[in-house]
Amino acid sequence: MEPKLAMNSEEDALKMDNVLISEQNDTETTLGPSMSKKQILKNLIILSSSFLFLFTAFQSSQNLQSSLNKAEGLGTVTLATIYAASVLSGLLLPPLVIRHLGCKWSLVLSMPCYILYMAANFYPVWGTMLPASLLLGVGAAPLWAAKCTYLTQIGTWYAKLTNRDRDDAINRFFGVFFMMFQTSQIWGNLVSSAVFSLRMDNTTVDETVISNCGAKYCPIENDNNTNLERPDLDKIYTVCGVYLASAVIGCLTVVFLLDQIDLDQTKKRDRKPGRHGGDSAHLLWEIVRHWRDSRYQKLLIPLTVYSGIEQAFFAGDFTKSFVSCTIGIWNVGYVMIAYGVANASCSLLFGRFVQYVGHVPFFVLALLVHGGTQITLLVWKPDPEMTYIFYILACLWGIGDAVIQTQINAFYGYLFTNKPEAAFASYRIFESAGFILSFGYSSFLCTNIKIYICLGFLAVGMAQYGVVEITHRRSEQHVETRSMAELCQT
Length: 490
What we know:
The protein is mostly helical. The chain has 15 helices and no strands.
């Protein structure tokens, strides 16, 4: 289908979506899914496991960047670089790479970019970290777009084979994926804390220095805090070696165990010459047209950006301003394990129960949990004698993040089933924009200002999500009413 003028209304867009989905379903009835239920479930577990190994390395390393590589803001600047490159990559590469290589080999092409970043951490200077960060960012957009497209496709097939609701099946698959994915916070952080806790001294930090931790923390005013001193080099090498090995295992899992899927199999009969050409400008236009034509996508931008901001704040600012500053860098991993356990378990739980109550209650839960936690962080004075509070706050943040990650991904899959590549590429672009903002100003703003920014995006994002839910439900009811009227007339 060639590019058209913008549709006049969201109702027109919905009608067009219904036509396309109907055509796709008619073709699937003839061709059928290309996998059995057993194969689909096997590939779900393999894909989830590969990301578990890969992000055991990356996420745990990301959690430590602001503390280990705090000199001249190297850690947070390189993290911002990753997501800036990811935005640029997301504008062109995901549809192009996925269309030519398929989802599996898009993953295989992208994962070595993470491996090189892990290797660069053995010698973290601008000359090694910046190029590795740029390369990782380039590979990140195709990686996540391929993952989301793969899960949406096999989820749709599974729903057809089991006579389940498509939205329910996609939610379950994303729930299983993020349950396994978020356990990476456990294993990687267990490694870092186990190694870094082997301290050589028992130095204490002055109470005056501790009083400037938490929401009051400002990057340039806390250089005399011994809790933020870099660990011994041999311990850093040990942690980096484990992370590098984990990333390599994740890549090999995809290479040897994951099955390729043919995204175009359901459309082969209707394909016209030149319709799916490999021209980059045409592929970019598909993404631009998605932004232009879909009011839903425009309304979801603040919430999608918040998804990146909240993850970056927790990984870069909570770990440094609250945990490292108050109770030491060796405790970062242990606190993040609590976060990972809460996040993983809730990801699975929420993915299962959304079919009974819908998306709305979970988004309300995220608003209350994250909003309440952020307000608490603003007024709470961290106390090294009350370490359990750090774990409670981490668990609460994990619960909110579980909602944000599973429900936004599934909601995109539900709204934009007929154009998943462009939709999920857009998701990664706007989420990456959140990471760029948060990591970009991390070395310059005090923590309380960062919390206010988080709260602002959360409030606006949730409000506009509510508009999408209401509009979409009204549009569906209108289409159903019109269909019933036409049926009665015939």
